[in-house]
Write a structure and sequence with these properties.
Shape: globular
Order of helices and strands: HHHHHHH
Radius of gyration: 22 Å
Structural class: mainly alpha
Oligomer: single chain
Number of strands: 0
Strand content: under 5%
Number of helices: 7
Length: about 300
């Protein structure tokens, strides 16, 4: 697939009660969601676990809730550390593959073959993790390593045949989008709710279907397929791809925020790192493709 982020329907930490990020976030110092106002020990109305998937199970009716556990819970530091480890693995293997798998007249077929194989393995590993109930650090880091090999060879090819500065521009563009979305999200300019989630999912599904159709026409019909990834249309779809990646970043930030607020298990920080890494890879690939079109003859 040309832009790989298969976790379209797995945003958020809740596996059994929907997307945790689209429920009411807990408010510090305020009454518990769904409780009778004025009585902190009242039984929550309805299903309290639909609001917090990590709420303590097995409370006896009429009994005061126990204090939330403070150990083994995900923190922002956990997310930063796991994300740095995952992204660091991508960068390290990308640099090594750039150096060890040169894209030149003598090695181009070998390098491309290894890159395609690594990309397919990364895609399979990402799909396996996407449908697992729990994050597997070894699986996530393996995905990052194979993804890095793919990105390193592709980036080397773009640098060799398109332009020396394209890769650096794509990296800077990815960092700028990340910083911009983070600032907009923290400032409240982006509101992630069910409507936003539904719009992004529908747009992403349509985008991927169009890219798959274009790829099929390219494989069986030759040329540029329907022209969605080259020329003026390629520029338009490149911009759309970057915007979709920015929307997924907002979903990732909401996922992290809710996981910390609801007291998600510490291991879920790996899931946050996985989602952020995939989204950043998506944005980088779209930038690389867009800049390649703009700089090609």
């Amino acid at each position: 697939m040309e832009s790989r982020n298969p976790v379209f329907s797995r945003r958020g930490f809740s596996r059994d009660n929907g997307y945790a990020g689209f429920n009411a976030a807990p408010q510090a110092g305020g009454p518990a969601v769904g409780t009778q106002q004025g009585n902190p020990y009242a039984q929550p109305v309805g299903n309290p676990y639909a609001q917090n998937p990590y709420a303590q199970q097995g409370l006896q009716q009429g009994a005061p809730p126990q204090a939330p556990a403070t150990t083994g819970r995900m923190t922002m530091d956990d997310v930063v550390a796991r994300t740095a480890t995952t992204l660091g693995t991508v960068v390290l293997t990308a640099v090594l593959s750039w150096l060890l798998l040169p894209v030149d007249a003598n090695n181009i077929n070998k390098s491309y073959g290894i890159a395609v194989g690594a990309g397919l393995i990364a895609f399979v590993l990402a799909m396996v993790q996407s449908f697992k109930r729990r994050p597997a650090p070894a699986l996530i880091l393996s995905y990052a390593a194979f993804e890095g090999v793919f990105l390193g060879v592709i980036s080397s090819a773009v640098s060799t045949y398109i332009g020396d500065g394209v890769v650096a521009q794509a990296v800077l563009g990815t960092m700028a989008v990340f910083a911009g979305v983070l600032v907009a999200y923290k400032a409240g300019w982006i509101r992630v709710n069910r409507r936003f989630y539904g719009f992004v999912m529908a747009a992403a599904l349509g985008f991927v279907l169009l890219m798959v159709v274009n790829l099929l026409f390219t494989v069986f019909g030759g040329g540029d397929g329907l022209g969605f990834r080259s020329g003026p249309l390629g520029i338009v779809f490149g911009v759309i791809g970057i915007l979709l990646g920015a929307c997924f970043l907002a979903l990732d930030f909401k996922q992290v925020e809710d996981g910390v607020a609801y007291g998600a298990p510490r291991e879920e920080a790996w899931l946050a790192a996985f989602g952020l890494t995939m989204t950043l890879v998506w944005i980088y690939m779209e930038f690389l493709r867009l800049l390649s079109i703009l700089n090609s003859d």
